[in-house]
């Protein structure tokens, strides 16, 4: 059915293998972030096939889908106390910053006869989640020691997501120093020194990753083939594993400038138009309700995107190399945000494609 998103699982397996190879050289165990495609189990399985043994997601609903796969599961969003029971049930590991939540997880784990693993999050300046004060951190660790069903397995940080702070040797170095201090205090090593997400991948590309980082939570780099600090492509990766397919519902010759007084569009913006005379335009049946304002790019030669309303995308096909008709399909590559929105939309169908990497 159209519109649809085509997911090339063989390309994702390839990307996962490349990331596994890259991280292995630095002694890093990657966790593949599955929220970008709503944790479709077959897609996650393709990533596991690429050699990644930890699957991470922000939503318990998504982690439930992954329970049959041969992989550990990690909850990325700070747990809600109201979901403590399901967090322990479906996540092997969770990221935490509040002792009250840890006590709730401990109680839930005790009832279920489990030990729940936790990574304490450290705020290194991005100002999203995490502990900033060293004294508070050490006090929390002393309290964790009394929680019999909680196992502290690591320290982590999140960068670029809110404050857009770039991970570097200095801030990740501080995370490593804190971890070493805690290991000395606890008398045991931590499995995870989790140095962020796909925005940290550029450090490996530039051979600058600090020694001591043992984990990265990687979504965009596997799914899109890019690092997210500067948006650079990672060599030898596939960048089109996710493609939007949309169907043409109108083709007309129309002016390039609207006729009449210009006000706000449906989303509160005031558009600007360049007068190019009469042009052949096509409308496809997909719009901002499906991919919001996130960028998509038509891969068909000579086709330009003019804009979108809630339900329609308007294209200039005057210079297109192909001839299009009502019912013709056009393909689009996606930004990470567009992929996330499209796979979340109930109006977009999903088609898994395998074989013929291209």
Characterization of this structure:
Pfam families: Ala_racemase_N. One of its GO terms (cellular component) is cytosol. GO terms for molecular function: alanine racemase activity; pyridoxal phosphate binding. Keywords: Isomerase, Pyridoxal phosphate. Its cofactor is pyridoxal 5'-phosphate. This protein is an alpha/beta fold and 358 residues long. The protein folds into 2 domains: 215 residues, Alanine racemase (TIM Barrel, Alpha-Beta Barrel), CATH 3.20.20.10; 112 residues, Elongation Factor Tu (Ef-tu), domain 3, CATH 2.40.30. Helix content is 29%, strand content 24%. It is built from 11 helices and 16 strands. Strands 1, 10, 11, 12, 13, 14, 15 and 16 form an 8-stranded mixed beta sheet that branches. The protein has an 8-stranded parallel beta sheet with strand order 8-7-6-5-4-3-2-9. Helix 4 links the parallel strand 4 and strand 5. Helix 4 packs across helix 5. The longest helix has 18 residues. The two termini are 23 Å apart. 41% of the residues are buried. The model has no long low-confidence stretch (mean pLDDT 96).
